[in-house]
Amino acid sequence: MKRILILNLVPNTIGDSILLLSFFNILRKNYGTAFIAVTADGMSKELWKDNNEINEIIEVGELTKIGDPEINKFSKAITYLKMFSKIIVRIKKRNFDTCFIIYPNFFFMHLIPVLAGIRRRIGYTYSGSLFSFLLTKKTPSKLSYDGYYDRHIIESYLDLLRVAEIPFAKKDTVCIKKVSKKDINKVRKQLSLLGISPKIETAICVHSQSKAVWRNWPPDHFKQLIIKLRKEFDALIFLLGSKEEYEYNKQLACIDKKVINLCGKLSLSEVGAILKLSDLFIGNDSGLAHFSSSVGTKTLVIFGASSPLQAGPRGYGKTITIFKNTQENTLNYLRNKNFEADLKIMRDISPREVFKKAVELLKEE
């Protein structure tokens, strides 16, 4: 039996984890009886647990610490060294014959499958890739950090399949996140205790923040939008996000009692269920936008600092992106360290524009 490892060391990111779902699907279609495993942090493990393309998710606990924005460089370096040695020991025992090395590009990642005795190694070459000569199949990295500002990240994942000569169709590249009936029933029960029924009322999920402040639409714009949605549709508004975003969303929750602040109150599985039960998601360029689209929910994403060509959702939920920037002006924070230019672009997108697109999606059958 073929044994495949997907070496993934991305810490604490929903979006990148969702975009890998199509990669898993294509591998499973081509290697139906293979044993396929992937390394992951706790967040990704929960996101992937209901998708059956993967036989084993190998949790790498150090990734959670590495993804902590408060960790200093010295502690991060020590944690990387510990993780490096532990991963080699763990995957060597599993006797993999093939390894796909996914982003991010760490200089030592090419060493891991070699030291674990994996014969076939597929990965990226990039500036500073000292050990890319160890790869048996290689392809150039083509992300925004490599100067490819208009190319979708999912194409870079697919590059690994192309260089490995693994066929796929366009329909295979859609990211589909499965949501269990157990989680849906659990969320329905929780909402019913609050006297809420998404099956009867129009339900809209709103995510007002992202990890990068320059991607955030202004809070006052979200407030105006929510007031319009409440007036037009009498909609339930679920405010989603992490526990760190709870205070930020308090002002939105004050609009009225049907605007409910759920930030930090749901597990990732429960977030997936509430997205699945809702009629629409509205938010910034963030992982939750990818999550929404992947569970099949209509999705409206507000872009400014980055382009949907590079980071738009690729799920099966109908998606509209609002993007008024020019390609020459995207990613100012990356190209010129100019955050203010990106923030201005976000401010220039009006609540009326977003409301119009939301109505279009809600009224579409």
Give a summary of the structure in a few sentences.
This protein has two domains: 3-173, Glycogen Phosphorylase B (Rossmann fold), CATH 3.40.50.2000; 181-363, 3-Layer(aba) Sandwich (Rossmann fold), CATH 3.40.50.2000.
Structural description of this entry:
This protein has helices at about 15-20, 20-30, 40-50, 60-65, 75-90, 110-115, 155-165, 180-195, 220-235, 245-255, 270-275, 285-295, 310, 330-335, 340-345, 350-365, and strands spanning about 5, 35-40, 55-60, 100, 120-125, 135-140, 205, 235-240, 260, 280-285, 300-305, 320-325. It is of the alpha/beta class. The protein folds into two domains: about 5-175, Rossmann fold (3-Layer(aba) Sandwich); about 180-365, Rossmann fold (3-Layer(aba) Sandwich), CATH 3.40.50. α8 crosses α11 (about 270-275) and α9 (about 220-235) runs parallel beside α16. The longest helix is centred in the first third of the chain and has 20 residues, at about 75-90.
Q: Say what oligomer this is.
A: single chain
Task: Tell me the β content.
Answer: 15-25%
* CATH topological fold name of the largest domain: Rossmann fold
Secondary-structure element order, N to C: EHHEHEHHEHEEHHEHEHEHEHEHEHHH
| Count of β-strands | 12
Radius of gyration (Å): 21 Å
Walk me through the topology.
Blueprint: E1 3-7, H1 14-19, H2 21-30, E2 35-40, H3 42-48, E3 56-59, H4 62-66, H5 73-92, E4 98-101, H6 111-115, E5 120-125, E6 137-140, H7 153-163, H8 181-193, E7 203-207, H9 219-233, E8 236-239, H10 246-253, E9 259-261, H11 268-277, E10 280-284, H12 287-294, E11 299-303, H13 308-311, E12 319-323, H14 332-335, H15 339-347, H16 351-363
Parallel strand pairs: 1-2, 1-4, 2-3, 4-5, 5-6, 7-8, 7-10, 8-9, 10-11, 11-12
Helix pairs in contact: 8-11, 9-16
